[in-house]
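Preliminary data (for renewal application), zinc ion complex.
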Amino acid sequence: IEEEGKGGVDRFDSPGKGRGLRVTKRFKVGDLVFVSPAYSYVLSANERGFYCEFCFARKEGLAKCGKCKRAFYCNVGCQKGDWAMHKLECSSMCAYGENWCPSETVRLVARIIAKQKTQKERDPSEKLLQVEELEAHLDKMDNEKHEMNETDIAALHHFYSKHLEFPDHNSLLTIFCQVNCNGFTVEDEELSHLGSAVYPDVALMNHSCCPNVLVTYKGHVAEVRAVQQINPGDEVYTSYIDLLYPTEDRNVRLKDAYYFTCDCKECATKAKDKAKMKLRKLSEPPAPEELRKMFLYGRSIIEDFRRLLTMCELSLDKMGAVFDDANVYMLHMMYQSMGVCLALEDWDGAASYGEKIIKPYSTLYPAYSLNVASICLKLGRLYTALDRPSQGLRLLKKALVILEVTHGKDHNCVTDLKKEIVQLK
Ligand SMILES: [Zn+2]
Ligand SMILES: [Zn+2]
Ligand SMILES: [Zn+2]
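Predicted structure:
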């Protein structure tokens, strides 16, 4: 954000909301309000090889880092540009091999710490206003979040100790809380997750359920565009959450993740709630208390699923300190995690668990196993849906070999699978 007025946007104290952004000129629908480079960013491990680690360009034939062979770049320029960040992981990935598994949050925090250090070295007097100004809400954390943060801090020490000087435990906690509250997921136009980043300017915007701007990404640069007309003096509002849910659910989510309740027009009028909570036409409409119970059940079951995934990840981190990925307890947990990812429609997450499971499954189970056939089918179809047809085809063929023995060549599932395979070729 430029100095007051110049860029059309300035910071101000929004009544009851703390800091906020407002416009100093008129913006029409579709106008670019401002652009914000990432303070720090990281490409998702699942997207390696598809995007340049440095500029997030998507292209074929990227060149890989000769040392770790796990980071990919457009050219030498991008590789050089990325080295200050990639060096935090390059040798560590070589040393840990398959067992290198810090979460994306941990990877981003490592980059933030490295960036803060180079900033301090360049100019010790410079206030690191950018990241230090972000809200942390340390005091409002519950036990579950505490445990998550402690696990992340342990992983940070475990995988990054060689190249980072760590600040004290409390400062680390603050950074993790800041990233949890102010981190952004970089998404493409299909809303596929490409990576994570911190944009201090974008984080200044307050939330509304009827936002007047949207954030999109060009590479890893965030672009903020008007989706309603914004007049001089109006505050700029973005939405922090999925707006599909009814008012009460949205506010539970906002309270849980960002520690506030929304007072926007949509939350006050609840105009769309009736349509969002549409009921089946029954001869006898349900009693209000029955309805209330079902509503709470629906909401909690979605939350339970998210929690379940967090639990899976935590348990894998914990056991992973001692057990190899091919250990049966790890395999079982990863199989469950894959199921949760599928139910949450996190296809990339599901694929990455499936990939870890499939090899040990093939050796640990007997040659003709329904469990192996099932994972080959699941992962094969997932690959097909994710536009990786050759990998999908290979797995579906493997499943076919098993199913022909276990179900007989005439079985519906075998003839159907054969058709599926022919269509893929
Ligand atoms: Zn590049
Ligand atoms: Zn490397
Ligand atoms: Zn609202």
